[in-house]
């Protein structure tokens, strides 16, 4: 009986042991499958991200609640724990000057001791440029960790409605800012405003930069329709600051602000603002501004970026800072200039080579090209200027070429890396018809630079503009990126 009992116990132990082994095998299999779904390397994670639908790269884009779905974004952020609700924010929309204004706001806040997140788009060389904290862009290690964390929610949501590249990037920014425990985040819209993925935040203040005709196929062919889309970021009771706009645009902004009972202030109208251009041995040609509100007085502040058009952006940034002050943020006006002195912006009137002199600028609509030609003429001495130009099909091409002829002595048309890039030969033909001037076309940027180099002397200037893709290629050609992976 004893032997029999021992035998039974042995059988039980053997059976339990087998079951345990089988269970371990099954668990091991599950873990293997699970680990395959996660990313071991940054390269794998980046590849996954870049496979998402990217409306920035699509030739034909429908702008509606199906493609730009805030309900989808809301569900996605909810699955991630609603990180956008855990930090104070500032929201900036508009046609041109968004990145400049956002950067100036961020630097002034940093100079006042705040830890500041900054989310902008597009990027020039690396998508890491879009997400930064106190000027430090997100690292590969941080990006890998975040993409591993959001993988499951993305896959769950993808069964019904797949999050897009921009939605994921925006979510990554919010999570990163929460992880870094920022005091406030400055958020720039992508396309439009009303349906933009960033439009789920409830900001402390909203800034609207200069409005002009751009992305007509998505936002509308008239300035009032574009203003309506941008005003879609207005929130009940949240203060709005803007610059002087076209009358039709201003009428819409005022009506939309009234509709949501939000106070609207305009620099140069409701807020006293003036600017002057000057030159000094220390700073060279530059602009200074004065801006006065009921609670702040900024006198003779030097605008940190080139071009008189940046005066409006700087004034808007300071007016937004003043609104934050009235909402409880401690701002020392004496530190404002200290913050502005630290402003630098990739691809905005940036000199990337001294021999030959090569300037890049992301002027990608009619008003921006006009401002660029004026700014170069005002602040950069040269004998002759050769412009290398390429743009996308969703732009007012004829309008941009009209403005280009006002400053360029010679134009070389080329193609950027974007699938939406206009044919250089088509641009050349249109330019000749508009201006009656001779020009050249080239297959790529390298060939365009060869043509330009052969045409310039020491006192001449080469300007590359028209497309962020194109100036990104130019910057990459002359400067190696530091740490962040290239992705355009």
From the structure above, extract its key features.
about 500 residues, alpha/beta, UDP-N-acetylmuramoyl-L-alanine:D-glutamate ligase, Protein-Tyrosine Phosphatase, Chain A, eight-stranded mixed beta sheet, six-stranded mixed beta sheet, 16 helices, 17 strands, about 40% helix, disordered N terminus, disordered C terminus
Give the helix level as a range of percent.
Answer: 40-55%
Provide a count of the helices: 16
Secondary-structure class: alpha/beta
Strand content: 15-25%
The Cα radius of gyration reads: 26 Å
CATH homology superfamily of the largest domain: Mur-like, catalytic domain
What CATH calls the topology of the largest domain is UDP-N-acetylmuramoyl-L-alanine:D-glutamate ligase
The CATH architecture term of the largest domain is 3-Layer(aba) Sandwich
Structural overview:
- By secondary structure, the protein is an alpha/beta fold.
- Helix content is 42%, strand content 16%.
- The chain has three domains: 32 residues; 286 residues, Mur-like, catalytic domain (UDP-N-acetylmuramoyl-L-alanine:D-glutamate ligase); 129 residues, Alpha-Beta Complex (Protein-Tyrosine Phosphatase, Chain A), CATH 3.90.190.
- The chain contains 16 helices and 17 strands.
- An eight-stranded mixed sheet has the order 4-3-2-5-1-6-7-8, with helices on both faces. Strands 12-13-17-14-15-16 form a six-stranded mixed sheet.
- Strand 9 and strand 10 form a beta hairpin.
- Helix 5 crosses helix 6, helix 8 runs parallel beside helix 9 and helix 13 packs across helix 14.
- The N terminus and C terminus are likely disordered.
